[in-house]
Amino acid sequence: MIVSSNLTPGKNGLKGWTADDVVNVLKKGIDKDGNALCPPMPFGPNGAFGGLTASDALDIATYITTLAPADSDIIPLCVAPAAPPAGGASSGGAPGAAV
Fold this sequence. Notes:
The protein is an all-alpha fold. The chain has helices spanning 19-28, 54-65.
């Protein structure tokens, strides 16, 4: 089952995030600590949000960061994708195979 993380400024959500932090997520797929986000959110330059204008991304980010804080009992089940090995070599198996 795919579930969303808490997108409100609640304690287990986006508390302490700025609109610029959210814009970076939408446009680059990087959280405020520099970590890649987990799929299936369509983030980053090649994702569905990659084509947002700067103004649209900021409007979405401003909206999200001004939501009323709410807490959630959702347990994050995602493990962020690992960085590719140095030199782009596969870590085992056939190229492109899930490991």
